[in-house]
Amino acid sequence: MTVLFRRLFAALPVMLGVSTLVFFAMQLLPGDPAAVIAGERATAENLDLIRQQYHLDRPVIVQYGLYLKDLAAGNLRTSIATGTPVAKLIGERYAATLILALSSLFLSLAAAIPLGVYAARHKDTWIDRMLLGFSLAGVSLPTFWIGPVLMLVFSVKLGLLPLGGFDGPAAVILPAATLGLALAAGLSRTVRVSVLETLSADYVRTARAKGLPGRAVLWGHALRAALLPVISVAGLQFGVLLGGAIITEKVFAWPGIGTLLINGILQRDFPVVQGVILVISATYVTVNALTDFAYGLADPRVRGRGGS
């Protein structure tokens, strides 16, 4: 547990750096947030009042100092566009992103593990080459292409699944499949390579020499050790998914934090953009630290080097 807390504490400067970078990057965007709020017919007096309310009339360095002060107090500020606390907006949408990320990861692992093991068992055969082709296709095809194709087939043509939104369990299938396809393609290759390396280990040869069936050696001995690298890769990918699959959420009108981020950028809603990216960074760092911790629990050699 000490290692876990140490990793989380060490990530604080990274999150501060990300927050700083995002703050100043937003200052470079064209347009006036006050004008977006007030509308086209706003008077100069109304614009000045809005700028004063949100400190937009202050020098940038002063705005940055006020931002850090609020951040240190745990205050993510209020949305300029809606007047709603940013923490509340993120809280309302984070669950949807979590559901989508977990569903995508589940589908990808359910496909990647058996495919990777099957490819390892049939190394250098046509089956292995076919699975390699699937992997390359899954990694190469962009989600903004896969998503509309799945919508066209399963929603428009067949009418089996909802076209978009978050109206029930069936609505998560298409966006989760869109994200899970690319993730499964990469994970299946990781599983294949890891299984092949494990099958050449001494303890696997010993298990075979004792006369254990091939399936028992593969699933009972080799696969357990082979899944250790998969834990790391899957954990990192899960952090990315939790950070917001922005394109997929937009394509399927999924009410997650990715959609919230896009809307905040289009509306020049500084607090929303800064708050969402800060939460995304914190999520990624936390998941990464938990992944390393889980890897250490699964592999005693790592736990022995890292301490407790």
Looking at the structure, the CATH topology is MetI-like fold
Terminal-residue CA separation: 6 Å
Q: What class, by secondary structure content?
A: mainly alpha
CATH superfamily: MetI-like
Question: Could you characterize what this model shows?
Answer:
It is a single chain. This protein has 308 residues and is mainly α. The protein has one domain (86-306): MetI-like fold (Orthogonal Bundle). The protein has 15 helices and no strands. It has helices at 2-10, 12-27, 33-38, 44-53, 60-72, 86-121, 126-140, 143-157, 173-199, 202-209, 214-242, 246-251, 257-266, 270-298, 300-306. Helix 6 runs antiparallel to helix 11 (214-242) and helix 10 (202-209) runs antiparallel to helix 11 (214-242). The longest helix has 36 residues, at 86-121. It is elongated and about 85 Å long.
Short description:
By secondary structure, the protein is mostly helical.
What is the fold's blueprint, element by element?
Blueprint: H1 2-10, H2 12-27, H3 33-38, H4 44-53, H5 60-72, H6 86-121, H7 126-140, H8 143-157, H9 173-199, H10 202-209, H11 214-242, H12 246-251, H13 257-266, H14 270-298, H15 300-306
What attributes does this structure have?
mainly alpha, MetI-like fold, 308 residues
